[in-house]
Fold these 4 entries.
Entry 1:
Amino acid sequence: MTTISVIGAGYVGLVTAACFAELGHRVNLLEIDHERLNALERGILPISEPNLPEVWQRNLAEGRIRVTGNYIEGLLNSRFAFIAVGTPSTKNGKPNLKWVRLAVKNIAEAASEPIIAVIKSTVPVGTGDLVARLLTCHGRNGHSFPVVSNPEFLREGLAVFDFMHPNKVLVGASDRNAADAVAELYKPLDAPIIICDNRTAEMSKYVSNVFLATRISFVNEVARLCDEYDVDIIQVAKIVGTDPRFGGGYMSAGLGWGGSCLPKDVKGFIHMAKVRKVNLPLVRAVKRINQQQPGVAVRKLRQLLGSLEGRTIGVLGLSFKPDSDDIREASSIFVIRLLEQQGCRIRAYDPAAMKAVAKILPQVTYCNDAYEVAKGSDALILATEWDEFKELDMTIIYSLMHQPIIIDGRNIYDPEKMSQIGFIYEGMGRHGIREKRAEPVLLSSAQKDMEPLLRNDLVISRESSYKSGS
């Protein structure tokens, strides 16, 4: 089997390394962050991802995975160097290629034999050309460095499954021999392999993520209209999704999209257009709608409770999606910050992400489970649809709360059942049972107080900067 080097021990790098080892290859994982490297050397994975620990430990024990911080060791005998480092957004949305440039420089200087550089990270169109120039510039031994763009299409929480069961493998290169060599690595997966040029592969990855973000923002905007006309967005989405022209994927209304990919890639796409003086009003609207979604949930609370000053609000879920500890651009964080601006006391629970959130929101009271969150709360906001929240005994939750109000930010509960228990239920695009719904406390003259919660200029923004992982 082939020896493969993977640079960057983030979500993409760890999954890529583990899964190539699972396919029988020898994998050298390179990581220059000392804290992360030390954890890996002690057998500790720095991320939470279902099925990854089992795959990682099995291949580590069988000697197919080696972790190092030394490029000379990490590239020894490797035919491929997969670049899977972070490309975080700068303030103006431009992807920061600092870690890509550093990885490329180190590859060129450390490689003792010809090697194919494979870009896994999501990068702007034209990065493949830049990498080729940098490899030539920094190369010391006269070796050739073909550059292949091989973007990942992994979903956090399902990343191992997605790697081993891809619906496609995209390989972009100007060197057909290099493209065929990379394609050969994926043949055991029995998936369609699409070969194109680097720029087409780079653009296709961006368009995929921007289109997914567009679908979610569209359904969230429709959900606002459903609220006004007492229509259930879930039923609407199911009906629309039966049309084969659309399909039902990414049609769930909620608090908005987050994570390491969609927010960064939408901003990066807009920046690419700006550089070439191309206006993208639709994509800008997609971003703006998503920024407003946390404010929609807080406004629902204001309509039900009136002033939020001094209220105790429980937040269920903190990670940006279930089965992950990733809090990058998580909607829960924006919701909590808006609530704190309104003078609320916050109690929260998440199965995996509390330690990470506590570093940036230390004033929140972190609880041992959802029942402890509910105790004495004036309202609950469901921010992440973890399975354990779907299995809660809601009659106990009802009995523990000071006021039985639930804002279901992911639409996981049945409004009729919630009403039967006694909850005042509000989903995103589904009010619940109309006659059971509380009348708004605020007078019409006070409605202006809530408008800032939907104004783009007051939406909290948090930029993430991570060295490892796309």
Entry 2:
Amino acid sequence: MRVKGGLLLLQLCLSAPCLGQGTVPDTPAGRKFAAWLEVFNRGDRAAYKEFLEKNYPSEAQRADQALAFREMTGGFDLKKVEASTSEKQVALLQERNSDQFARLTLDVESAEPHKILGLDLMAIPRPPEFPLPHLSGSELIATARKKLDEDAVAGRFAGTVLIAKHGEPVLAEAYGLSDRDHKRPNTLRTRFRIGSMNKMFTATATLQLAQAGKLGLNDPVGRYLTDYPNKDLAAKVTIYHLLTHTGGTGDIFGPEFQAHRLELRSLDDYVRLYGSRPLKFEPGSKWEYSNYGFILLGAVIEKVSGQSYYDYVRDHVYKPAGMTSSGSEPEDQAVGDRSVGYTRMGGGSEHPNSETLPYRGTSAGGGYSTVEDLVKFANALEAHTLLDAQYADMLTTGKVDTPGGGRYAFGFDDRTVNGIRCFGHGGGAPGMNGELEVCPTAGYVVAVLANLDPPAAVRISQFITNRLPEK
């Protein structure tokens, strides 16, 4: 089973031939589809592995990962059969624990016993034919609290949530423990690691320097990083490319990162490790998420401003916005109220994520913040405290289509959620997940942080933004 586009777990409620709102055709592919969903939905490891060994042997060794996926989503309901032939089944599914939709494609052999050739899942935006109701303000708060209580009791959420309307909190809650060994509860003051959400701060800093006339968005990287090892990249990749993930600069995670995880202590260390790599594709030709591209933006900020990346963001983003609990201090330094992250990744029960953490956060991600600070950041953007109106709009307006159905701006996702435009960014890694959504026409800001694996926070954020009042 291949899972794509951010879906992290799977289960289905299905008993052929009628499953939820759909009917599975009585074809070889349809019967195999129904049988797979039924055994997968049961969550019985022995039965599921036996099914795979008989029908999809190439995937039998990944049975545990698939069942972990099942546990996280709470399963899928069949919503619609999109296409069906004797050898292929395409269906729309919805996670039971969230609003997330997926497209499942199953192919089988033409001859008996019709073994499965491929089973792919792709996360997709919610189709318009399955709209969710817009709630009133009071209904939204009551519904969100009910969802949070359910997920917290089920162990699917531990963290904090803040919903603000026109800049003022209308819901602010904390759930679960920030440190299980010491039985310390999460509070609104708890600092959570935020993963890639740091990209919003990096992009804001970059646009500040552009607004001040200190750098040009169409300038090549080599204009500022004059000694960059790969001269081809330095000449072709622009600041715009880096901000929009269209530069072909690649990622940082993988075997090299794992081998040097605690040695990478500065942005220059990352450039020394990855700076000689060739481009993955011609800059500007496609969109591909690049953490390394935002490492390079941090290096450019340092060159142009004359400050370290961390000092610049502290002085020009955090301080003006009133964000007193955000930063990227090294993991070996004590930071008050910083939560312990808990992960299942790597197998076994939930355990601290300490063995996965970098030395410190970077311009690509890995810092920490609170939901209160994130709302302060959103308010400062909307009040033009950090950027003037022109550059704030430039920062948050989508420019490049992304696979998830939205558009990527400069360090922000820009998408329409159930008819309402929202922009923001999420972050996720083992034992950490977060999302900030700013929905200006509706007047709402939603900030959710969790010290659990993705999609703990994202699913809560989506649940809320999907149901915002229209006015």
Entry 3:
Amino acid sequence: MTAPRQPPTVLFVDDDPDLREGIGESFELAGIAVQVFSSADLVLERVTRSLNGIIVTDIRMPGMDGASLMRSALEIDPALPVIVITGHGDVPMAVETMRDGAYDFIEKPFAMDRLLIACRRALEKRRLVLEVRALRDVLDQQKALAARLVGRSWAMERLRAEITALAGTDANVLIHGETGSGKEVVARALHDFSERAEKPFVAINCGALPADIIESELFGHEAGAFTGAARQRIGKIEHAAGGTVFLDEIESMPLDLQVKLLRTIEERRIERLGSNRSIGVDVRFVAATKEDLAAASASGRFRADLYYRLDVANLHIPPLRERRDDIPLLFFHLAREARARYRREIPEMTPEMEARLLAHDWPGNVRELRNVADRFVLGLYRIAEDAPRPREAPGMDERSLAERVDDFERAQIRAELKRSEGRLKPVYERLQISRKGLYDKMRRLGIEGAEG
């Protein structure tokens, strides 16, 4: 869980109790948060890369002196400002600490205003360092998320933004997506980019567990709780302590068990089967469904109170047919993964096959596309005729003829751009259209010139 943000704080260390008290009062009167310490060891315990503060230390102290404290603190974070206070005879030592990385040094006796000015500058520098690090972390997270959830469509950009916004919270999340759309991938991203990432991620497929054992799987049991329960067993929810519980196909959970799950989510406590003892659990709940749970709860097939408890935040994974422009990019991403698994080179993609990939409805979504990418890399799709074809059932493809033609032209142009490594002349020559005609089509179809 996200800890409260610490205010910018000065960690002041000196072995003189009168000076500590006076300096502490002066900082407080100036509106600067301060913590005072009698030894360097106590300060060093509080130094981390995320410390929102600075160190002000006397240079001569019993035990660890100020110079040693500074060196140890800078080993933890080289960008941490350390201000050294020195006596008149210790100026050469203070100059040496400046060479070793001290932010500033102040010679005793000093005016309090001089120290306050130096501390305010140092705290501002620290604020900027932490802000830059936070921005870099966000960018790194966005890159990592884009590698997991591949796609340039607006729907995927929105999904990644929503995951980023929710990952750092403990809000319950309900993920909705069709079969094979990547619901567990989204759930794992919510876990891996949260502060619970080092704790267990426990996935439970409610549809795959028989009704007579799902309660024991979730909540555990004591020895002798039922026939065959020879030993105590820790349930999945308890095992996930500090982490995330992912309930896939939540619509398949029996109604009587939904009551117990609701109580667990509300109270964050469980009772093992055969026990009267209540056990606290610190977990985050993420559920996934391919059904409309609002409709299921309205018809009595799913408890409405559990639905509303789970639906604090709702993530929708778009099916592939609703983001056809992502299909080529995602296919080559999956093909690269297959190349690494099978140690095979990726065959050349023909424009005809790419067009058919775009035209297919992909009822199995990413899972189905991954299977095709695997077979393609294994050499089982050597000719375009083997590629998936659109389903011919009437009414399955609701796109207009113009939309289908646009998809086909888009696929052809992208394939040729890839083949020519982004050079336009070979593209319009092979397609037998004018240069202006190619530019016009690329602009109308939203194709960038550097694609491929």
Entry 4:
Amino acid sequence: MASNAPNTTVACPQCRQPVAVHLEQLVDAGADPGAKQRLLKGQLNLLSCPLCGQTSMLGTPLVYHDPAKELLLTFVPMELNMRLQDKENLLGSLTRQVVSRTPADQRKGYLLRPQEMLSLQNLINRILEADGITPEILDSQRAKLQLLQDLLKADASALPALIQQRDAEIDVPFVQILGALLQRATGNGAAEQDTAVRLAALSEQVAQHSTIGRSASRQTQVLEEVAEELQALGTNLTRDTLLQLVCSNPDELRTRAVVTLVRQLVDYEFFVGLTTQIDKATGEQRKQLEAARQVLLDAVARSDAAAKAQGTAAAQLLQALLQAPDETAAVREALPEISDLTLAILNQNIEAAQKAGQQDAIARLTQLRATIMAELDASTPPALRFINDLMQSDTPEAAAEMLRNRSAELTEELLQSMVELAQDLEARGHADMSAKLKEYHGLAQRELSLAKWR
């Protein structure tokens, strides 16, 4: 949670208009993850002048606490010129609040040794370092952002050549940053429509003219091809048929795609079968199968490690949300981090509480789930919300009735979204859901045509 100093009035640095502000001086990342994010994004203690529109971050003493990382940091801006006694009294009061809020059995030595930061940037760097983000990583990200700016500023006719010229700098982290910015701009709708268009155009050019872009396109193509082959097997998809598929063409990209799509079948018994095939093979075929086995082992290890890390992160997020003083605000702030895995772990905890008969835990966890679902629904684009509602229909008859009742919401853009979503579901191996959506798309198309004549 964030501890607030009393309301105070500060003169706007631009127009000198007195502005009432509410300062946050204690940021506890364990109790309120949103406060940590506000601090890192430069959104903590902002002064917004209603007269001139000036927005600036106010300098104020801060105490930062992260129990998971065993961090207790303090910072007092030098420009405040606080007397040593006043500084010690204020920081001492804030750190005592941290200690008093920490259960006795969880108090550790770091709480007695707060680290003093000389600048706000040092404070932020220390927080990021504890999260595994080193100064070198930050420098690399700044370089990627500068590259992104350079590419966005380039003339369209010169862009392909510039991408090829700076090909060595365009790597996976750069593509991830570009994708994240495009997703955020797209999600903000009309407010960032121009930005989204420019980023989408750049993304397309990077995919066509960079080495990493062409490689990613090839990986996507292979993934779709393997997904189609697995889908064609249908109920005949077993360890044996999967083994045949791998052995018939042990290409590295195809082998990695297998782990991505059907990790659950690549188990001990699968590797026993693969080793048997290797023992039978000779010459070049044996070398290819041995290489494929190593690729599979590496891919499985990375997949399992990623799944474990994601599970740990999801569990920590749920714990933070349960401890947040304002559950709705905390959930809204954490929405980008809430995934299907987060909800699956939450449901597992609810089931465990039910089996144990822990009524208080059941009520608390169920309330959190309801809050998350409500916030997810509120943040879902109208088109996707409509499609989700439509997919809840168990039969074509029920879907047709819903479409008639909500025909006013049907548009060509909505129908196009249904087509794109069906294609995406099919590419990811969800053939049944894709077929259902395609059928309902046909019903929606018919209803839209009829609605024009009513």
